């Protein structure tokens, strides 16, 4: 089944950013896109892939207490 193709504005809305950021992602080839003549469309799955690849997982740190006697 084919993905829904989003406009730059719709992709920006999904990412919670503006059109300018999405256009920069396209220019830097950091997100997949489809060129339809002069129009640019972004597959919905490309937005999900971008979010997945840009997600940074938290690191659990064990706190070490110094200065305490045993």
Structure description:
It is a single chain. By secondary structure, the protein is of the alpha+beta class. The chain is elongated and about 70 Å long. A 3-stranded antiparallel beta sheet has the order 1-3-2. Helix 1 (8-15) crosses helix 2. The model has no long low-confidence stretch (mean pLDDT 91). It has helices at 8-15, 19-27, 44-54; strands spanning 5-6, 34-36, 39-43. The protein contains 3 helices and 3 strands, in the order E-H-H-E-E-H. Helix content is 40%, strand content 14%. The relative contact order is 0.18.
Short description:
This protein has helices at residues 8-15, 19-27, 44-54; strands at residues 5-6, 34-36, 39-43.
The number of helices is 3
**How would you sum up the major sheet?**
3 strands, antiparallel
For this entry, what is the oligomeric state of its chains? Answer: single chain
Topology, number of strands = 3
Unreliable stretches: none
Number of domains: 1
Average predicted local confidence, pLDDT? 91
Shape: elongated
Helix content: 40-55%
Q: Report the C-alpha radius of gyration, rounded.
A: 20 Å
Separation of the first and last Cα atoms = 63 Å
Strand-residue proportion: 5-15%
Helix-strand string: EHHEEH
């Amino acid at each position: 089944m084919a993905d829904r193709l989003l406009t730059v504005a719709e992709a920006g809305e999904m990412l919670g950013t503006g059109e300018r950021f999405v256009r920069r992602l396209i220019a830097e080839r950091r997100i997949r896109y489809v060129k339809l003549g002069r129009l640019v469309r972004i597959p919905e799955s490309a937005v999900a892939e971008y979010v997945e690849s840009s997600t940074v997982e938290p690191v659990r740190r064990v706190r070490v207490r110094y200065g305490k006697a045993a």
